[in-house]
Amino acid sequence: EAGVAQSPRYKIIEKRQSVAFWCNPISGHATLYWYQQILGQGPKLLIQFQNNGVVDDSQLPKDRFSAERLKGVDSTLKIQPAKLEDSAVYLCASSRNGGRETQYFGPGTRLLVL
Amino acid sequence: RKEVEQDPGPFNVPEGATVAFNCTYSNSASQSFFWYRQDCRKEPKLLMSVYSSGNEDGRFTAQLNRASQYISLLIRDSKLSDSATYLCLTTGNQFYFGTGTSLTVIP
After folding, report:
1. What pLDDT score does A1 carry?
2. What integer is the mean pLDDT of A106-113?
3. Using CA of residue B82, residue B83, residue B84, residue B90, what is the dihedral sign?
4. How confident is the model over A73-96, as a mean pLDDT?
5. Which residues of B touch A102 (CB under 8 A)?
6. Which residues contact A96 (CB under 8 A, 6 or more apart)?
7. CB contact, 8 Å: B52 with chain A?
């Protein structure tokens, strides 16, 4: 069974530029999560999707971050414009159906904002 | 106050030692609890779920104390390969990871 796929693996941009990350969850997984992990910290949930609907986006900085999962499969997370403090690893995870289900993480996208 | 708190360590222990980590959570409505392991520059991977009655998986034992709102992870007979960061996750209406506890097992 293929794992969670993410691209790109690395991205370097200048502040005020835009960037987008892509995630393809494990086939059949209804729930998809985007996390931000800053160096030395635990992952912070940005947004949770159940199929193509948003379950929780309370910690998503909506003035600059957006995410979509239009067809309930793959998802895109965008930052526009980026700030220096957005430098982090962006992790995508999926689970069969949320709640107590195990979350499987992708390898992450390492973003550096200069 | 953070939703989930962990002692960041680092914990440096010799091979064969027993080591325990705690994770405290502030939301009494938290429903499910997990321990994840994260190797350097890698993604988190599930180590074990934490059940109300406590559970064991080989050298690893997880406990939940709802009254005091903490979970624990005990590792017996530490191996070099156990060196990693251990993250706790609480779920309910929202999901919160702790900052992680760094463990280094020394030969």
Report:
1. 66
2. 98
3. positive
4. 97
5. 34, 46, 49
6. A28, A29, A30, A31
7. no
